[in-house]
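Hi F.,

I've been meaning to write this up properly since the lab meeting, where we talked about keeping a consistent format for the predictions we share between groups. The idea is simple: the sequence comes first, exactly as it goes in, then the structure tokens exactly as they come out, then a line or two of notes. No screenshots and no reformatting. I'm using this chain as the first example so we have something concrete to point to.
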Amino acid sequence: MPLTREDVARLSGLGFKAKDFVYGHGRMRVLRNVGGRCFFLCEGGCAVYEDRPEGCRLYPLVYDEAKSRFVLDSLCPHRDEFMVGEVDRVALRSLIRKL
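Output, unedited:
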């Protein structure tokens, strides 16, 4: 999951160290996985749900570069439960510009 500077600052403000949850270098930062799972995923669900990254808020809506369009991620087992509107597409365009 890509991370904006704002995501990193917000999560760091909760007391997490960026070096523990951020993977990447240069401009591209992504959420670190540990044991194949999100760093923030615990038995009770997302440990930072109210402060989760923007990409997590929009998921399973993603931008498919090969098709040049917005799609629901085929890897998400719950993708059929989501209704995507123009507000969601605008939010994802904004996120892409930030990244």
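Notes:
The beta strands are 22-25, 28-31, 33-34, 37-38, 41-42, 45-46, 61-64, 69-72.
The two ends are 11 Å apart (CA to CA).

If this format works for you, I'll send the rest the same way.

G.
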